[in-house]
Amino acid sequence: MNKSKTFSYEYDEYEDGTKGAHTLIDDLLADPDFSGLTELSIGNWGDCWEESCQPIIDGIISHAKEFSHIRSLFIGDMDFEECEVSWIIQGNYGGLWAALPELTELTIKGSTDLELGAVSHEKLESLTIICGGLPNSVIESVKNARLPGLKKLILYIGSDNYGFEGDCETIRSLLDTMDFPKLEYLGIVDSEMQDDMTETVLGCRYMDQIHTLDLSCGTLSDKGGALLLEALPAHPNIQKLDAHYHYLSTGMMQRLAALPIETELSEQNKPDNYRGEVWMNAMLTE
Q1: Which of 16, 98, 252, 278 has its C-alpha lying 20 to 30 A from 229's C-alpha?
Q2: Number of Cα atoms under 13 Å in the Cβ half of residue 240
Q3: Average pLDDT, stretch 44-50?
């Protein structure tokens, strides 16, 4: 049975500077529940818009033996009331891959100062990066990653206002180059150009391999919906389409829901029209 716990600080714990990223690992190791956990989430480490989580990452690496029972790790588990995603100062994960050889799931929230380094891990099955803008340096690390056991990949693309430096060709190159032979779940989500991203994803080689296609949290409209209606019947391996948070019309939603697969089409949004211009926003940017 998996046991999980989130470790974080309240404002009154870190406001005077005595608590922060530099103390969280010691506090975590002293917690009587820690030795029985398999899933660990790190939330607000205190002034996380000013202070990097690097001491936390380094602390895990230096206490690798004590963390060997952790199978699932989430660093940056906080909502916008604690810190906007674009404000979270991340760190360098280059040393983490070798330190936690039994890790199967890693989730990172925030992309400011995020570095993945040379990604190489035998047992990692799930990698999720939640951010308001995915930097090219992170995309390059994923592109060149050696993750032979990876089954699930979710990348939040975000906005160029908050860190995304590429375009659809950037993602096309990623999908053409990355080599994840066991990938079952592909999520290219939270894009402000989700229709074009949909076309890019539908043309990738993983479409014949995955069972779940995740195009959620972005600006998917009927243009992208029509592409899905045309393409998905040619891929009987795909069992689920997740497109929650979208700009599809009700008619297009009905047509997609009629496909012989599971569909998640909740959170329908309506475009804004301002002075003749149509505006659609991804779910998570700032």
Answers
A1: 278
A2: 12
A3: 93
Could you tell me which of 241, 233, 285 has the C-alpha nearest to residue 263? 241
pLDDT digits (tens, 9 = 90+) for 180-214: 999 999 999 999 999 999 999 999 999 999 999 99
Taking 90 as the threshold, does the pLDDT of residue 136 lie above it?
Answer: yes
Angstrom distance (rounded) from CA 265 to CA 272: 20
Question: DSSP state, 58?
Answer: H
**Position 241: which residue type?**
L
The Cα 167–Cα 178 span in angstroms is: 17
Q: 25-34, long-range: CB within 8 Å, 24+ apart, which pairs?
A: 25/55, 25/56, 25/59, 25/60, 25/63, 26/59, 29/63, 29/66, 31/5, 31/7, 33/3, 33/5, 34/5
- This prediction's pTM: 0.96
- Decide: 57 and 91 in contact? Cβ < 8 Å: yes
Q: How far apart are CA 92 and CA 18, in angstroms?
A: 24
Q: Is 267 left (phi over 0), alpha (psi -120 to 50) or beta?
A: left
What's the chain's Rg over C-alpha atoms? 20
**Helix, strand, or coil (residue 152):** strand
Enter the tokens of residue 14.
């870190």
CA distance 85 to 71: 24
38-77 in b/e form (b: 16+ CB < 10 A) is eebbbbbbbbbeebbbbbbbbbbbeeeeebeebbbbbbbb
